[in-house]
Design a protein that fits this description.
Elements lengths: L1 H22 L6 E7 L7 E3 L1 H5 L12 E4 L6 E4 L4 E4 L5 H5 L5 E9 L4 E10 L12 E7 L7 E3 L13 E6 L5 E7 L5 E7 L10 E10 L6 E11 L7 E2 L3 E7 L7 E4 L2 E2 L10 E4 L5 H6 E3 L5 E4 L10 E9 L7 E11 L7 E7 L2 E3 L7 E8 L9 E4 L6 E7 L2 E6 L10 E10 L6 E11 L7 E2 L3 E7 L7 E4 L2 E2 L9 E5 L12 E3 L5 E4 L10 E10 L6 E11 L7 E4 L8 E6 L7 E4 L1 E3 L9 E8 L5 E3 L5 E4 L10 E10 L6 E11 L8 H9 L4 H31 L1 H4 L7 E5 L29 E5 L16 H7 L1
Parallel strand pairs: 1-7, 8-14, 16-23, 25-31, 33-40, 42-49
Antiparallel strand pairs: 2-5, 3-6, 4-5, 6-7, 9-12, 10-13, 11-12, 13-14, 15-18, 17-21, 19-22, 20-21, 22-23, 24-26, 26-29, 27-30, 28-29, 30-31, 32-35, 34-38, 36-39, 37-38, 39-40, 41-44, 43-47, 45-48, 46-47, 48-49, 50-51
The structure holds 2-acetamido-2-deoxy-beta-D-glucopyranose (2 copies).
The site of one 2-acetamido-2-deoxy-beta-D-glucopyranose has 5 residues, from loops.
Length: about 800
């Protein structure tokens, strides 16, 4: 240790001498020493005594002392050795700060004689301080958008040392973006600036931590570091980006309001407001689309808002934008494709194109009456339609092409049967569940004149009382025409070629309503029946007609009084007769013969005694007209007897005639007077004409009886089939060209039982005979075989 000190002292001694030589010219001489800072206390600084040439032993006597402006007394003198030593550890930086040269002025004073010496002690800097930054971290914020080349001044590091021991250089930890620019100020101090060499991207690296190192030039070199923390500030340099360029979704039509469709999401790598994304529909989205869908601006959720109708649009394309809240705003774009899935929500529609609503009834089968188009707005199965009409009508559907049909007639139409068809057309689709529609097509069948007028009956029988009032209607025929309107307007007429021309003079017909009028009064005694044909004709084009037979039967009226044929009286006088005295009881005196031009009951005559001289003597057969004696004639009876006979018919009211007969009772006439001779004798008094008439009548009757009996025999054999099974032994005959007698028929009220009805073209009569009929009964026609009368009608 002592050796090292010695070496140090030697070294400084040498320096001092050089210094002294250069300062020897100064008045009191200058001493100059130097010492390095931070030396231990007691370190030798300079041998003052020797350098000033002072005697060491006298030093304390001469009060050798150091007077210094330095109040800290960091130096002192060793009186025994006459040297200057460090009193304490000297810190140059504390003493002199950043002064480049640190010099302590010293004054050394000795007395006896008083002498003062000045000197300097230079404190030599050693590199005992490291560069130090004022803050251990340097916080920097820089926008990511700044351009390369930008510079950021950094706080300098401090190093209290001076000279080369102070900061001489800065360095920065290696990195991609930053460099360092070191500058030297005029005073030699170094400053550093951070240089942005490559642009920043916050999204790639949002902060940097760099180490800044300051080094000094000392030996050994010392250094100090600081952290540079760089925060990159966000610039709105990124658009929000959607996860997908296109979102594809499917959605069932008619999805209820609020159904979520899809949630779009866009991310923005920026920060803060620059990354706050709001969603909205693009400008191109139509109002319609915006009404149908809603987009939550914050969450990006798209929901159904309106009614989705596949038939209106089967897909939607939504432009979706996402914008951040930076300044300026940057937006990102995406598309949402929504495919609408069809649901069978539409029933088929039936469109009728061209309907022939009126079809003539004579339309031939296969005629097109309507064209039908069936539409279903759904698609696929939901839109596949079938069409059908009922089978039980004379119409059918024919497929024209897809969903087009024609309705054609498939059978004959008859307006009179079905005037109108309501054809329900049913259409249904193949959806599940299927939907159906029906529509009714109304087709009217228009009339064609295909029906002739029809009379209510094929033939009519009209009974007309004779002596009818001329001009009165007697009957009305009606014919019905099943057609319509003009085709059904019926007019009536008599059919031209009347068989019995005079008949046409009797009747007339109202062409409008078929009323038949009698033109004149008809006399039954002249005309008993006749037939006419009536014709009904419609107004169609061409017209159709039909005819019916009208049988006119004249009914008898009691308009003829009985006519007494025999005995006949000369006008104004009575008829005369002779009765033999010998005539006994029941003697046939005479027979009254009378006729009545009427028929039936009107011609049925009855006889009665109206007045008699002796009512007890004669009587008249009520129906036979035979006058007979009631008793034998006695002496007392008057020889002349007057008898008034009333002959009356059975009409209502009845008509009558009277005949007065004068009988002479004569004794000369024999009792055995035969009926015929009696008759002949009575006839003696009648006129020749009457006689002939009676003879003719009588003989005719006999011949007629014979013929009848003969005919009965034959006919009953021949027509056995007719009478077979018929209980009563009655036979019916047809007699041709019968005698006048048989025309005097009585007409029963019920014509259905009247088998004596005339056969049209000939004057044939049916006569019924019964065995018990009296002779006069021949005049009456009786009901007979009903089967036969039916057949005749
Ligand atoms: C046709 O429609 C009517 C009402 O529109 C309905 O009453 C009828 O049942 C339908 N017919 C068919 C066969 O569907
Ligand atoms: C028929 O027509 C005539 C003339 O128009 C009329 O006088 C008569 O009353 C009609 N008869 C009937 C039954 O309508």
């Amino acid at each position: 240790m002592a050796n090292s000190l010695r070496t140090n002292a030697l070294k400084f001694k040498l320096l001092d001498i050089i210094f002294l030589l250069s300062a020897s010219n100064l008045v009191f001489g200058q001493i100059h020493y130097s010492i390095r800072e931070e030396m231990d206390p007691g370190t030798f600084v300079g041998n003052v005594a020797e350098d000033l040439g002072l005697n060491i032993r006298k030093l304390s006597a001469r009060k050798f002392r150091l007077t210094s402006a330095d109040r800290r007394k960091c130096l002192e003198v060793d009186l025994e050795k006459g040297i200057l030593v460090a009193n304490e550890r000297i810190d140059r930086e504390q003493l002199c700060g950043q002064m480049p040269a640190c010099v302590l002025s010293i004054e050394i004073v000795i007395e006896e004689p008083l002498e003062m010496y000045r000197g300097e002690v230079e404190i030599i800097d050693i590199n005992d301080n490291s560069p130090r930054f004022p803050e251990s971290s340097i916080l920097l914020q820089m926008a990511e958008s700044i351009a390369a080349g930008a510079r950021f001044p950094l706080e300098s590091a401090l190093d209290p040392d001076v000279g080369t021991n102070t900061v001489t250089d800065y360095k920065i930890s290696p990195n991609e973006h930053f460099g360092l620019k070191v500058q030297t100020a005029e005073d030699g101090t170094k400053t550093a600036e951070l240089l942005l060499e490559k642009p920043l991207d916050r999204e790639r690296q949002s902060s940097f931590q760099l180490v800044l190192t300051a080094t000094d030039g000392g030996d050994p070199q010392r250094s100090g570091t600081a952290r540079i923390v760089i925060t990159v500030l966000d610039s709105n340099d990124n658009a929000p980006a959607f996860e997908h360029e296109v979102y594809k979704v499917s959605l069932i039509e008619n999805s209820p309001k609020g159904t979520p469709v899809v949630t779009v999401h866009a991310s923005d790598p920026d920060e803060g407001p620059n990354a706050e994304v709001t969603y909205f529909f693009g400008n191109r989205a139509s109002q319609k689309v915006q009404d149908l869908f809603s987009l939550d601006p914050r969450t990006g959720e798209i929901r159904v808002e309106g009614l989705l109708d596949f038939e209106e649009a089967s897909s939607y394309s939504l432009d979706v934008h996402a914008a951040d809240s930076g300044s300026p705003v940057i937006a990102g774009h995406s598309k949402v494709l929504i495919k609408v899935i069809d649901v069978n929500d539409n029933a088929p529609e039936i469109l009728l194109t061209s309907v022939t609503s009126r079809v003539p009834e004579n339309t031939v089968p296969g005629t097109v009456t309507a064209l039908i188009n069936v539409i279903d707005r759904d698609s696929g199965e939901n839109g596949q339609v079938q069409c059908q009409i009922p089978k039980n009508i004379p119409f059918k559907l024919q497929t024209l092409s897809n969903n087009h049909y024609k309705l054609i007639t498939s059978g004959l139409l008859d307006r009179e049967t079905v005037p109108k068809y309501n054809i329900p057309v049913l259409a249904w689709d193949s959806g599940s569940p299927p939907r159906s529609t029906n529509k009714t097509i109304q087709i009217s069948v228009s009339d064609v004149n295909d029906n002739a007028p029809r009379f209510s009956r094929p033939s009519y029988t009209v009974y007309v009382m004779e002596n009818n009032a001329p001009g009165a209607s007697i009957f009305r025929v009606t014919a019905f025409d099943a057609d319509l309107d003009q085709n059904s307007y019926v007019s009536y007429s008599f059919k031209g070629n009347l068989q019995n021309p005079p008949v046409s003079t009797y009747l007339d017909i109202n062409s409008m309503n078929g009323t038949i009028y009698a033109l004149r009064s008809i006399d039954y005694e002249h005309l008993k029946n006749f037939q006419i044909q009536v014709q009904a004709r419609d107004a169609g084009v061409p017209p159709l007609s039909s005819s019916a037979t009208v049988n006119v039967i004249i009914l008898d009226q009691n308009d003829n009084a009985p006519l007494i044929v025999s005995p006949s009286a000369r006008s104004g006088s009575a008829a005369a007769g002779i009765v033999p005295q010998s005539a006994g009881q029941g003697y046939l005196v005479t027979k009254i013969i009378a006729s009545d031009a009427d028929s039936g009951q009107n011609a049925r005559l009855s006889y009665q005694v109206l007045k008699a001289t002796d009512p007890s003597l004669f009587t008249v057969g009520r129906s036979s007209g035979e006058i007979r004696t009631i008793r034998g004639i006695v002496e007392q009876d008057a020889t002349t007897q007057t008898l008034v006979i009333l002959v009356k018919d059975n009409g209502q009211p009845s008509l009558s005639s009277t005949v007065t007969i004068l009988f002479s009772i004569s004794a000369n006439v024999t009792e055995s007077f035969s009926e015929s001779s009696n008759l002949v004798r009575t006839l003696e008094t009648v006129s020749d004409l009457n006689l002939y008439l009676i003879i003719a009548l009588g003989s005719t009757s006999i011949i007629f009886l014979a013929i009848i009996i003969f005919l009965i025999g034959i006919k009953c054999k021949q027509d056995g089939n007719i009478t077979e099974g018929y209980n009563s032994p009655i036979c019916c005959y047809r007699l041709e060209d019968s005698n006048d007698v048989f025309t005097r028929n009585s007409v029963p009220k019920d014509s259905s039982n009247y088998c004596g009805q005339t056969v049209p073209d000939t004057s044939r009569y049916m006569v019924c005979l019964s065995p018990e009929s009296s002779k006069s009964d021949f005049l009456f026609l009786k009901p007979c075989n009903p089967a036969l009368s039916q057949e005749q009608r």
